[in-house]
Specification:
Helix content is 28%, strand content 8%. It is α/β, with parallel strands linked by helices. The chain is elongated, with a radius of gyration of 25 Å.
C-alpha cells in the first residue's frame, strides 16, 4: 500500500505549478496521475508535512520517500544529513542516514529536470522493494557502461554517416500535440547511432559487470579517434569497440572469403581491418551476418538490430 502526501489541492507538484500548459497539457498530466490512482495509490491532498508529522510518518510507515523538491529550512530538522541544498543520500539506493527514508528528485540534487526525477522514482522503487524483502539494499541492478565522452570535431562526420539528412524537425501542431507518425519517423531517421547495437549480448560488458570493472581506472590522457565503417549493406564496423580477439579473422578464412578480415600492424597498435584498404562490403561478401553474430562486442554488428529495444 502506498500513500502520497500532497501539500497542494491538485496532484502533480512542479509539473502542475511550474510547467506551462503549452508544454504539458494539464488534461494529459491528470490522466497519467489517474493511472496511478487506479493502481491503488492513495492521495492525501492539502497535506503538507512538517517536522512533527514527518516524525509520525517514519514511525507509522515501513518506508518514506521524500520527493518534495528543493529542501526548505524546516526540513533541516528532520534528522537527516543534509547541506544547504539537498539531503545526503547513497548514490545507488537514495537512502539517507535513516535506513528506511529515501530522498529523490530536487530533494536529492537540484537539477530541475522532470524526466530525471521520474527516473529516480523508478530507481528508488528497486531499493524500497529490496528493503521490504529483507535483502541487501543495493538499488536497481546496473550493467557496466563505457562512455567515450564528447565527440571531437572530426568525429562528427563519422557518426553523421548513419544519420538522415535535414535539420531538426518541429511538430507542426506544437509541443503539446507532439509529432505525427510521419514527423516522428523523419526525426528518428536523424539518429546518429552513437550507442551500442549489442547492449545485452556484449560479452565484454557482461564480464565487466561481473568483475566490477571501472572505466576510469586505466584511462588514457587522450582516447583514440572513433570511426565507423558503414559501406556494407547489412553490417557496421566500429574499430574502437574491437578487442582484437580474431574471431572474425578466423571465421572469414574458414568460409574462404576472397578478402576477409585480417590483423594489421603490430603490438599495441594492431587493428583488425580489410586487406589492401578495400571496402567492408568486399571483405564480408558471404559471412557478414555470421561475423556480426560471432563478434563478442558491438564492434561488428547488424545495422538493423532489435536488441536495443528489448
Amino acid at each position: 500500500a502506498c500513500v502520497i502526501f500532497e501539500r497542494n489541492g491538485v496532484a502533480g507538484g512542479a509539473l502542475v505549478h511550474s510547467v506551462p500548459a503549452d508544454r504539458l497539457e494539464p488534461e494529459v498530466l491528470q490522466r497519467e496521475i489517474g493511472l496511478i490512482r487506479d493502481a491503488g495509490v492513495e492521495f492525501r491532498m492539502n497535506s503538507g508535512v512538517d517536522s512533527a508529522m514527518f516524525r509520525r510518518m517514519i514511525q507509522e510507515y515501513d518506508a518514506v520517500v521524500i520527493a518534495t523538491g528543493n529542501i526548505e529550512p524546516e526540513q533541516g530538522d528532520w534528522g537527516m544529513e543534509h547541506n544547504d541544498k539537498q539531503f545526503i543520500v547513497n548514490k545507488d539506493t537514495y537512502q539517507t542516514n535513516l535506513p528506511h527514508v529515501f530522498a529523490i528528485g530536487n530533494a536529492n540534487r537540484q537539477m530541475r529536470l522532470a524526466i530525471r526525477s521520474a527516473a529516480q522514482g523508478k530507481e528508488v522503487a528497486f531499493a524500497v522493494d529490496q528493503l521490504f524483502r529483507g535483502v541487501r539494499v543495493e538499488g536497481e541492478p546496473a550493467l557496466f557502461n563505457s562512455r567515450f565522452g564528447k565527440l571531437q570535431e572530426d568525429e562528427y562526420a563519422e557518426y553523421l554517416k548513419e544519420a538522415g539528412e535535414g535539420s531538426r524537425a518541429e511538430a507542426a501542431g506544437g509541443h503539446a500535440a507532439g509529432f505525427t507518425a510521419v514527423e516522428a519517423a523523419k526525426e528518428a531517421s536523424r539518429c546518429m547511432h552513437c550507442d551500442c547495437r549489442k547492449p545485452f549480448s556484449c560479452r565484454l560488458r557482461q564480464l565487466s559487470t561481473l568483475y566490477g570493472a571501472q572505466q576510469d581506472r586505466f584511462r588514457y590522457t587522450t582516447r583514440k579517434k572513433l570511426a565507423k565503417h558503414v559501406n556494407h549493406d547489412i553490417v557496421v564496423y566500429e574499430p574502437e569497440k574491437c578487442i582484437k580477439c580474431g574471431t572474425c579473422v578466423r571465421l572469414t578464412a574458414r568460409h574462404k572469403e576472397e578478402l576477409g578480415l585480417t590483423f594489421i600492424g603490430r603490438g599495441f597498435d594492431v587493428t583488425i581491418g580489410v586487406p589492401f584498404n578495400e571496402s567492408l562490403g568486399k571483405a564480408l561478401a558471404k559471412t557478414a551476418a555470421l561475423a556480426a553474430a560471432a563478434c563478442p562486442t558491438g564492434a561488428l554488428s547488424l545495422k538493423d538490430t532489435e536488441e536495443g529495444g528489448k
